[in-house]
Amino acid sequence: MEIVSHPEYAQTIFVIIEWINDCSYKAIYDTSKMELDEFQEFVKANGGIVTEFISFDTNCSDIKSTLTVGGKADIIESKICIE
Q1: Which one of 42, 64, 74, 75 is most buried, counting C-beta atoms within 10 A?
Q2: Which of 42, 47, 40 is CA-nearest to residue 18?
Q3: Cα–Cα distance between 1 and 80 in angstroms, integer?
Q4: Are 16 and 4 in contact (CB under 8 A)?
């Protein structure tokens, strides 16, 4: 389980993490711990968001996050880094 708490959010967000393999996981909002907003309900209804770690270097990792809706994949590519 992942817990996201940030001053920009009006609530703490709870996410269930299901690892697919060593470099990919699916994230689904946890309805037992929080009430979902419209977007969170949409994501949950479509099976969650799959995130893949594409490449790694010393401090950063390139990632690809995919939400599949009606057979069409919406993909966001980004980078996460440790400071």
Answers
A1: 64
A2: 47
A3: 19
A4: no
Provide the 3-class DSSP secondary structure of residue 41.
Answer: helix
Is 20 within 8 Å of 35 (Cβ atoms)? Answer: no
Tokens of 51: 């995130």
Q: Which residue has the tokens 């996460």?
A: 80
pLDDT in tens, 17-68: 999 999 999 999 999 988 898 999 999 999 999 999 999 998 999 999 999 9
DSSP annotation of 11: S
This prediction's pTM: 0.80
**How is residue 17 written in tokens?**
């993490």
CB under 8 Å to 79, separation ≥6 — which residues? 60, 61, 62, 63
